[in-house]
Write a structure and sequence with these properties.
alpha/beta; Aspartate Aminotransferase, domain 2; globular; 14% strand; Aspartate Aminotransferase, domain 1; seven-stranded mixed beta sheet; binds pyridoxal-5'-phosphate; three-stranded antiparallel beta sheet
């Protein structure tokens, strides 16, 4: 007899991106495939780190403390001073990238039955994690008609005193590209403070901005868990490294939780990031970030232009940051069917809006501009337009 799968995993809906990921696995080597689907940076990590990688790998041995190397925690706290944070190493937990950061924050804060306010559309991991932690997702829906802005009155109404434990905010946002402005940050912070809620602030893209800049929740440290990663900012998702910052009590709880999950964060990657953050490498680091943002900005502009030219029926808001356009094509009844047939017939990969919590008949789609160059982005949009012409719902 085979063992049964746990009820929490059996009842968990598989990520809607899974089907497309399975197909992409097969199509991966096909040169005709145009990838506007995933969020993987196509750029390499900084050369000055890659040059050191072999030596660092050879000289790394064993585990380290669950919270990560003191030297790295200390350096991150120092770097964050420049952003207006007053932190010490006790406020920093090194993680195996934001995915571990999100999961350990949930484990450390959320009790069964707690309500977690989630702004839709949202990054795919959140609804699943809320379910896995037996919490209740309380939705705030945004859409193209309000430029994906958060209605603060609605947020106030959705707070259920004593039951609402946290609000998840992503800025710059995946999938909408929205950056929270100062006023929104302050309003969310005040509501969290007043109601004893945690702000789970997903800052995976905080350096990837094109218009405006990332606004920190630094006035709300008692309530904040900031979640950061080097996957996007150093183009290194393969290194699985990031950090959470929070007050000491929450950090200590997260250290306890991670002891049983990961033992410690990736030792080799930590050493690469120590190198990345060294003061003597500041100029190289800043030049690298500039190069990343400029490269993606060009692609972002190219995608916007191509959408206007070839897909005039699509509504969209130009992203202020992150890697994506979240477009709406009116008249689509089933977004997943559209995505699947587009991939089969035109070999263009995009992701349906329902993967991010939209209804499948709202016609939303996420298009990434970081995986392909300007020419291929234009080619991809043209193919979507051709496909749409003959598309039957
Ligand atoms: N958070 C957001 C908003 C993301 O878009 C992603 C990845 O795409 C992650 C977290 C997870 O990133 P990682 O675990 O590679 O740091």
């Amino acid at each position: 007899m085979k063992p049964t799968i746990s009820s929490s995993i059996s009842s968990l809906k598989a990520s809607p991106i899974r089907e497309i990921a399975t197909k992409l696995e097969i199509l991966k080597e096909d040169p005709e495939l145009i990838g506007l689907g995933g969020g993987e940076p196509s750029l390499d990590p900084p050369d000055f780190l890659l040059e050191k990688a072999g030596e660092i790998l050879k000289n790394s041995k064993g585990y380290c403390a669950t919270a990560g190397f003191k030297k790295l925690r200390q350096r991150i706290a120092e770097c964050m001073k420049e952003e207006g944070f007053e932190l010490t190493l006790e406020n920093i937990l090194i993680t195996n990238a934001a995915s571990n950061g999100i999961s350990v924050a949930f484990k450390s804060l959320i009790n069964p039955g707690d309500e977690v306010i989630t702004i839709l559309p949202t990054y795919v991991a959140y609804p699943g994690l809320i379910q896995l932690n037996n919490a209740k997702m309380v939705e705030i829906r945004t859409g193209i008609e309000n430029n994906f802005r958060i209605d603060i009155d609605e947020l106030n109404e959705k707070v259920n005193k004593g039951k609402t434990k946290a609000i998840i905010v992503i800025s710059p946002d995946n999938p909408t590209g929205r950056i929270l402005n100062k006023k929104e940050v302050r309003a969310i912070g005040e509501i969290a403070k007043e109601n004893g809620m945690a702000i789970l602030s997903d800052e995976a893209y905080y350096l990837i901005t094109y218009n405006g800049k990332f606004e920190p929740f630094n006035e709300f440290m008692d309530n904040l868990v900031g979640i950061r990663s080097f996957s996007k900012t150093a183009s290194a998702p393969q290194w699985r490294i990031g950090y959470n910052y929070a007050n000491k009590d929450i950090i200590d709880a997260m250290i306890k939780a991670n002891q049983y999950d990961i033992i410690c964060p990736n030792v080799v990657s930590q050493k690469l990031i120590i190198e990345f953050l060294k003061e003597e490498n500041r100029a190289k680091r800043e030049a690298y970030t500039k190069y990343v943002v400029e490269t993606y900005k060009k692609r972002m502009e190219a995608m916007g232009k191509s959408l206007e030219e070839h897909l005039p029926e699509a509504d969209f808001v130009k992203p202020d940051g992150a890697f994506y356009y979240f477009v709406r094509i009116p008249g689509i009844k089933d977004d997943a069917k559209f995505v699947s047939e587009l991939l089969d017939t035109k070999k263009v990969a995009i992701v349906q809006g329902s993967a991010f919590g939209m209804r499948k008949d709202e016609g939303y789609f996420r298009l990434t501009f970081v995986s392909e160059n300007e020419e291929r982005i234009n080619e991809g949009i043209k193919k979507i337009a051709e496909f749409l012409k003959n598309y039957k719902n």
